[in-house]
Prior knowledge:
Layout: H1 3-39, H2 49-74, H3 80-102, H4 105-111, H5 113-121, H6 125-148, H7 154-203, H8 213-230, E1 234-241, H9 244-251, H10 253-270, E2 275-281, E3 284-290, H11 294-309, E4 322-328, H12 335-351, E5 357-359
Parallel strand pairs: 4-5
Antiparallel strand pairs: 1-3, 1-4, 2-3
Amino acid sequence: MKAEELKTRFRNQLINVHAFAVIAATLVEIIAYILYTYSGTYPLTIACPYLWHSLIGPAAINFSSHIIARKICKSDEFANDRKNSALIYATLITTTVVSLVHRDFIIAASAFIFPMMLSANFNDRKLLRHSLGVSLFSLTATTIILYAEDKITVANAVNISALYAFAIISFLSGKININFSNRSTEIINSQAMHNSKLEEILQKDAMTGLYNHKMFYAQLEACIKDCHSKDSKFCLAMIDVDNFKSVNDTYGHDNGDKVLINLANVMREFCTQNDIPFRYGGEEFAIIFYEKTSFQTCMIMKKILSAFREMKYNFTDSKITFSCGVVQYDVTYNKDEFFSLADAAMYKAKSLGKNQIYRHIHIPEPTKIVQR
Length: 372
């Protein structure tokens, strides 16, 4: 599962949790109102202050904020950070409503743990600061209301100080969590990049930068599978530098390496995105031409041969060439047969005088007629 899909699933689960919290808070107030009316504390009437201040008003605010947040979270028109903000703000609205309605310090402090925790999980410092701000506002508003009602005691004053400290500690804990998460992500990304580079090194020839022998066979098998499943086509060109042993023996291996590097560069220059060049081994190279016929492949290989042949070297005036065999895959071939045909075509080009491309033509077997 991709990271964005996981975040979306996590956010959808949280918006459902918020819906449950809103419904649960509303049900608690309904039950409380029924108990109050049953005990005679409040009258069972539409004009009852408790009904509007603690039930209908808060429920309307909470459900409205939830509906708006859910619509934003489910929409494709908004970015992920906007969706995260909508969820956090809806949660902050609910916690603020609950804390102010009940005017209890414990409720006011504990209610804001959840939005701070969510902000840390979403790795959003801005939302975390907003959660702290709303938490402090709620505590301050609760203090002012209780002071106006002349309900401030020494115990309440101690609780106020402790809960302000608790809110700040929760904020600092969330900030540490975000910093730790960011650092962990950096380490994971760095390790992933290192592993990717290491994998690439293992897949490529160190001198020429082309894919190596192992990757050649892996790609060959993949192309063969595509031909059988998607009815696609591809060709294989096997290349061998002519008289390369003589180059090494006469001019040294360093100059021989220059020849191989030049050939690799020419191959890259003429290959398209659908063509993959390989260093098969020694002075042998291969190119897989995807979605090309053998005729199209030969045209490209002629350009590569011409460009390679015209290269100048400071150690010899002689032209260095290669021989090449081209075969187009047919579903009647297995992997070994196909490779053998390309290899045989390359040696055929050498036997015909080198410095050329030989194309193998597939001749289907005649249909057998069974006589009765």
